Amino acid sequence: MSDNIVAIDLGTSHITGIVGEKKANGTFSIIAYETVETDSCVHRGIIYSSVNTANQVGSLIRKLEGHLKGDYIDMVYIGAGGQSLRTIDHVEKMDIAEGAFVTEKDINTLKERCEKFKPNLADVLGAAPSVYYLDGRKDKVAVGALCKQLEVHYKLVIGRLSIRQNIKNSIEAIPNKQLAGVIVSPLALADAILSPQYKELGCALVDFGAGVTSVSVYKGGDLKHLCVIPFGGRLITRDLTSLQLTEADAEILKKERGSAILQNEDENEHVTIEMEGSEREIKMSDLNAIIEARTKEIVENIYARICEVIELRQLGAGIVLAGCAAELRNLPELMKEKFGLKIGFSTIQRGLVDNADEMLGNPMYMMAISLMLKGTERCVSRQIIQEIEIATIEENVQEEKKPEKPPKAAPEIPQKKKGKELKEKIKGWFDLFGEEE
């Protein structure tokens, strides 16, 4: 069976699942994809109810299995996110014997030391690619180099102690399902979207989700900073309920008519909605004044977080936007006005997935695809019931073809017996087998 990877993105508004086939050349083909409502079991990227999460993920997996033609999913990769995620720096170093080269064993020794590091009241969920310093000089390759001291700089992604355990509890509560691994969502998204050139030139990947907004800053090919802002698109939607709207109606109006920048013409425009059998008019200026105010607050937070770690002029590739909330009209214009940088939308890099062009730029699926690309363990198996049926059929066939038992052979007649006793025994044998004396 081919290597099929299953990845699930636990979003605040929806949970998305992807099944992909990993080919020999490293590319993927999408086999199945589905989404279900989060049903309030995930808040700001964090699982708040393992039971409800298990129910929703279980429903999603059954939908995915419906596309697999008799196969079933026994393991899944889950993305880790949420407002507690952030990066910290950690350094491990060792002296190298005079005249000796750095070996793979040296690198592994420092990696093992790093894995033993436990930050206070936090869990290490992942790490960006490490950076090597040989006698204080940065180098991309360490193995085989000649130096006196080797330093490895790690950028660790940490979060709440409960994140990994809650994910594990949710998946293990689903019958016959196991957790294949936990993957840091912002790191996976950045690797899927940002080319090496973008990371080298410097850029900030801003993922506007429903519950949170994650910010990943790259420069010189390395991750410089990762943080999560506890504001997202759902906060804008809830602000709109102050116009006496339901949250569902507010979400629809935001997506269809909302703008991150209040326009002059909004003053004279109205939008009509139906509420409990009657129609109601809402001024576009009222709608977009609320959206602009909250969006500016989120953008100000993004601006402050980025400027804490890097000068804006160093971001040669600008800002890259991702996430469903990033589709808000005029958001790129608002951010360009604030940052003074190029603002672009994201898509999965070409050459990673070969049969789903329409999905690669769709924010609904980009995170799940990014997680799938990180998977290494086969997650799909044949149906156990089918295997039992096949085994039973094979057993029945073998029974039908089983040869008949050969007739019982006559006992060997002794050659060296004499007298009347021998003649009587021989006669008895022939009587037994129906032969005449």
Can you walk through the features of this model?
The chain is an alpha+beta fold and 437 residues long. The protein has three domains: 1-82 and 162-194 and 349-392, Nucleotidyltransferase, domain 5; 86-159, Dna Ligase, domain 1 (2-Layer Sandwich), CATH 3.30.1490; 195-348, 2-Layer Sandwich (Nucleotidyltransferase, domain 5), CATH 3.30.420. Helix content is 35%, strand content 28%. The protein has a five-stranded mixed β-sheet, sandwiched between helices. Strands 8, 9, 10, 11 and 12 form a five-stranded antiparallel β-sheet that branches. A five-stranded mixed β-sheet has the order 16-15-14-19-20, with helices on both faces. β19 (319-322), α9 (331-339) and β20 form a beta-alpha-beta unit. α4 crosses α11 (363-373) and α6 packs antiparallel against α8 (284-307). It is globular and about 85 Å long. The N and C termini lie far apart (67 Å).
SSE layout:
Elements lengths: L2 E8 L3 E9 L5 E10 L4 E2 L2 E2 L2 H16 L5 E3 L1 E6 L5 E10 L8 H12 L7 E5 L3 E4 L2 E3 L9 E11 L2 H11 L5 E7 H9 L2 H6 L1 E6 L4 E7 L2 E8 L3 H8 L6 H11 L12 E6 L2 E6 H24 L11 E4 L8 H9 L3 E3 L11 H4 L2 H11 L6 E3 L1 H17 L19 H13 L5
Parallel strand pairs: 1-7, 7-13, 14-19, 19-20
Antiparallel strand pairs: 1-2, 2-3, 4-5, 6-21, 8-12, 9-12, 10-11, 10-12, 14-15, 15-16, 17-18
Helix pairs in contact: 1-3, 4-11, 6-7, 6-8, 8-9
